[in-house]
Amino acid sequence: IYEGLHYDSIQKIKNTNVVPCIQQYYKKPLLLHQGKMQWLFDSEGKRYLDMFGGIVTVSVGHCHPEINKIAHEQIETLWHSTNIYQHTNLYQYAEKLTSTLPSHLKVVYIVNSGSEANDLALFLTRLYTGNFEIISFRNAYHGMSPYMMGTTSLSTWRYNVPVSFGVHHAMTPDIYKGLWGGKHCRDSPVQTTRNCNCSTFKCEATENYYKQLEEVFKYSVPRSHVAGLIAESIQGVGGIVHFPKGYLQKAYELVHTNGGLCIADEVQTGFGRTGDHFWGFQMHGIKPDIVTMAKGIGNGFPMAAVVTTSEIAKVLNYSSHFNTFGGNPLACSIGLKVLDIIKNENMQYNSKHVGTYLLLELAKLRDKFECVGDVRGKGLLIGLELVKNKSTCEPLGASDFVRIWEDCKTMGVLIGRGGFNGNVLRFAPPMCITMEDAKFTVEVLEQALLNYYNKN
Ligand code: PMP
Q1: Which of 86, 89, 115, 258 has the fewest beta carbons under 10 Å from its own?
Q2: Which residues line ligand 1 (CB under 6 A)?
Q3: Model confidence, pTM
Q4: CA gyration radius for the chain?
Q5: Distance, CA 1 to ligand 1 centroid (Å)?
Q6: Probe ligand 1: pick from 120, 122, 136, 142, max atoms within 8 Å of CB?
Q7: Same domain, 207 and 270
Q8: Which domain holds residue 145?
Q9: Least confident stretch, 13-17, 22-26, 325-329, 343-347
Q10: Is residue 102 within 8 Å of 287, Cβ to Cβ?
């Protein structure tokens, strides 16, 4: 039974006492009360299928009973900082987390948010290389701290104050809306058919976007000396933009040749979500020097991490470095349990199995409806782009998008929204969803699309 504030009182407080920039979904934002695995319940007891996992934070399910149990036990035992005293959880966690990564990535620094993790990663690249320049991608989202706002390249998420000098934004290798694409460009069960001039053996997208990156080095970076490159394995907030095969491999080579380090931002793509691999960067066959992670790492508990090599980590010995709550016993107990659950409950396999089914079913909607321009992603990280016109990719207008999206909510399915133009439906549910949930989602979306055309 909901015993919180009345909906109207909340709106009043929200308008008076809470910063106005917080974007809330839906004309009538949801007032949540409870969560149970893939389900959310609002203050009136209405149940929703959560196909967006609270922006990918809830990796293994809302209020997973095992996580609740371990958190409760830890709360009863000790909460403290582990930066001045030791606690077993931090060490157990560091060992377990690194066992999921390639063997060169051995050293962990636990922090509390994705922005903090990326800040630290950028800092490490500059300290280690002695260089300053950073390459990031247009349409990327890496966080909101001043350092990270500079790497984030979505103007809708930036402010008119100088942020993070020395960041160069390379062209997004977008094979749907961008200049080049290809039939088999994506490492995904669903392909795009746009912009394809590839010969049988050669992907035009990878080559041409790579030339653009070389030009950034040539024209923009003094002596091509870079500290590092930061990239998401699939761009999340930017609308699930999935780079062409081989592109990141070539980009990493270029950065390494020019003295820089490569950061894989796994905040959305990590912990088995992409299905085939535990880490998103593995689908690109690349070897990052630094990996950052957040969101799903704590199943909703504030926690994040940076993992790097022991050689790079040594640069932090130069001075003292401190993070009060990073690696605290409670966060690490939860982090440990999340790793156990992903393994014991076959969450990665489920992401692949249910995610592939969902992708293929959504692709049928693309073939059926003029306004579904593209369906892309991997595992349980999927984007569906709504357009006015399939051949021009012009985005569907905001009011039309909102009609379809709100209709899904009314029918009980919560979906995320993303992309520079806000016209991409984003699916990133807790990894425990079932085939039935995927079927229900597609039925609901299909009905919302039919309703949209019937009312037009
Ligand atoms: N990197 C990526 C890829 C993200 O999606 C986000 C959050 N949307 C961040 C970093 C920043 O994480 P946080 O909000 O925890 O600072």
Answers
A1: 86
A2: 113-115, 118, 141-143, 232, 236-237, 265, 267-268, 294
A3: 0.97
A4: 22
A5: 33
A6: 142
A7: yes
A8: 68-344
A9: 22-26
A10: yes
